[in-house]
Amino acid sequence: MKTRLALVFIHGLLGFDRLRLGPVTLDYFRGVRQCLADLPVDCYFPRLQPAATVERRARRLVAFLEPLGSRPRCLIGHSRGGIDARYVAAKADPSRLVRHVTTIGTPHRGTPLADWFQRYGGALFRPLVAELTTEACQRFNRAVSDREDIPYVSYAGSRPLAEMPLWYRPWTSLIARAAGDNDAQVPVSSACWGQACHVVRADHLELIGWSLGRANPAIERPFDHLRFYRHIAEQILDNVDGSQRSPCSTTKHTMITKYSDREM
Description:
Blueprint: E1 5-10, E2 18-21, E3 24-27, H1 32-35, E4 41-44, H2 54-65, E5 73-78, H3 80-91, E6 98-104, H4 112-120, H5 122-129, H6 134-143, E7 152-157, H7 169-179, H8 188-191, E8 196-200, H9 225-239, E9 255-258
Parallel strand pairs: 1-4, 1-5, 5-6, 6-7, 7-8, 8-9
Antiparallel strand pairs: 2-3
Helix pairs in contact: 2-3, 4-5
């Protein structure tokens, strides 16, 4: 009997796995567990330290993965969770059990928003964004090389300024002036990483199922995140096979594709 693939969903900065507020339960990856329940995969949602360094979060993630034994696993990270996924795959997986890395809205090359908070945010915010600045991510990328035996696939979100909730617009404008299209926190140019990058019509929180703007079918708001994660899981199942390398892993340059959630 073939071992079921483990999909490990890694939350971002100040994130959580599941948050209970009295009678209300909130999942960081909203509804994803239930959406994928009928697929031949097991989904895991580790709780990492919300604001720790990459190394500390990686240690927590490795400890979480230990009970999985020799099961193959694929890491799916949102925002800075994608950086954690890259670190663990490259630096903390000696048995090569990680078979695929997917990043979603991850600031691989940093974000101008972190640069701004590092400069003007004061003592409260500087430690939170210290590893997400442009300079810090350049250092990380020099120190952490992607593995050549597994695929790295990325997803970036982007919406025009007029489609953003009002409270997102200052951030969207700030990032756009410095780096172009963005999801209100991360530029597309930074989120694209690996052999393939797909750009979807969504802001940073829509990528995990939380829309803070008014519903509007004309601009595909809210983003159909459940269909999106279903697509990701099915693509991983198609590409990951324990007996052969995925052909994606042989591609040398990032292929960027733009589509709406209706095309997935």
